[in-house]
Amino acid sequence: RGLTDISLLERFIHLRYVDLSKNKLQDLSPLRSLTQLLWLKVDGNLLTSASMQELPYLQVISFDRNHIKDLEGITHPLLTNLSLKENKIQTVLGLSHDQLSSLQVLELRGNKIKTTAGLGVSKLKKLYLVRD
């Protein structure tokens, strides 16, 4: 769709499911007011970071096929499923149990990860690291 600005969404504070895939987004800061958000999909955009203000009820995020280089700034306490397939991630540093205590599924397929050193998420049940 070619969206580059999503500031209009700031007014819709009760949104629970948002799919902004296949746009040209570089900034997700307007989503900070969506405190009831449960599910977010932003695949195929121009994002270079997955960092967002903490959303208290967010459970599922998909950042597939962006330009994300690291895992810093992902701090959602109820997040159970995080997908970052086909980005430019080289290290898993930045994910901590304190910030992601509910994370169970982590998808990192198609990245350039060389080591899992620094992966400190204790409830993880599924970890996908295949590099195609």
Automatic annotation (TrEMBL):
Domain of life: Eukaryota
Keyword Cell division: no
Keyword set, alphabetical order: Leucine-rich repeat, Repeat
Keyword Ion transport in record: no
Database matches in InterPro entries: Leu-rich_rpt, LRR_dom_sf, SDS22/Internalin_LRR
Protein name: LRC23 protein
Organism name: Mystacornis crossleyi
